[in-house]
Amino acid sequence: MKLAVVGAGSTYTPELVSGLSRLSVDALSLHDVDAERLEVVGGLARRMLERQGWTGSLELGSDLDVAVEGADFVLIQIRVGGQEARLHDETVPLRCGCIGQETTGAGGFAKAMRTVPVVLAIAERVRERAAPGAWIVDFTNPVGIVTRALLDAGHRAVGLCNVAIGFQRRFAGLLGVEPERVLVDQVGLNHLTWVRAVRLDGRDVLADLLAEHGDELAAEIDLPRRLLDELGAIPSYYLHYFYAHDEVLAEQREGVPRAATVAEIERELLQMYRDPSLAEKPALLDRRGGAYYSEAAVGLVGSIASGDGAPHVVDMRNRTTLAGLAPDDVVEVPARVGADGPEPLPQEPLAPELLGLVQHVAAYERLTVEAATTRDPVVARKALLAHPLIGQVAMVDELAETLLEAEARA
User: Fold this and answer.
1) Which of 12, 237, 238, 273 is catalytic?
2) In the chain, N or C: fewer CB atoms in 10 Å?
3) Residue 375 pLDDT greater than 90, yes or no
4) In CATH, what number is assigned to the domain containing residue 95?
């Protein structure tokens, strides 16, 4: 089996490589357009694999056709424009009175407009050069929008985020059990999900978790404990941008952008990676974000390769899974994953207070994919107007002009 990683110059790559020994991979291809950065990250990857005793072939390069040639799986983890673009996405919306976040709201829109065309171009090369039936696994944010664009273009693709596996590991720790015994029933859209059940050996223990650990779980997502009890669910961290909008906006206007913090962490990580004696992922990588990225990726690829039918929370077509959404919407839900890909587990309808928000953002995502692929400014403005964190004509006009002009200059 050949696995190709596009965007392998990412500082996340050692996290992925750390779990590679659990897959039957014969060839690993690491690709990045930044050859110098790939050499640094790839050097650490090589040392880690040697330490693991891996005997497959490793190739590093900037030629995409070579990287994906004959690949059975292609993992895409790119950041178009780098941390500089992220800083733009997090700060420009603030000047227009909007929350600045790289995947949610106006910042997520800007990132999608920049990213979708690049990912689709990569996917076309995969279609032409990879092995028959190859899978694209997308980690590139905004995952739901990018996955929708891939599926709309007819690619064999599935999206993956680390939020659900983070919850699984957290709940398993609180319960004092192995993570494999815990199934997190997380539903919604990417970065707009709620945990509605936590099944330990098939039994829902969410009520027990809230009764015993509700205060600390609420604190971890920056939301009031009362809200979790009233919803009967645990929102993902990203819901605090919606549920505490004004407070978050005020904090962002006074604080240091996350992009600046991440850029500094990346500089330190790359300096560490240059050390020829380093042969394991450094602890600093945990501060970069993306916890359990390796476990999520390796688990998903392993299930498709082996056809084991194990459960994973993935981004996929809704079909009839969540009532009230269109069949072609891309939802994030638990699914049994086998050789033919994910099959969603049955879901009860979303409560009205959840469904309304999901429908709102699903409409935005549909329009954003259209805007990113057609470059139609009218559709772009409709997408911004549809987003519940924006939704005002004057704000939309200012954002569209600022964000789209900046993209055109890039």
Assistant:
1) 238
2) C
3) yes
4) 3.40.50.720
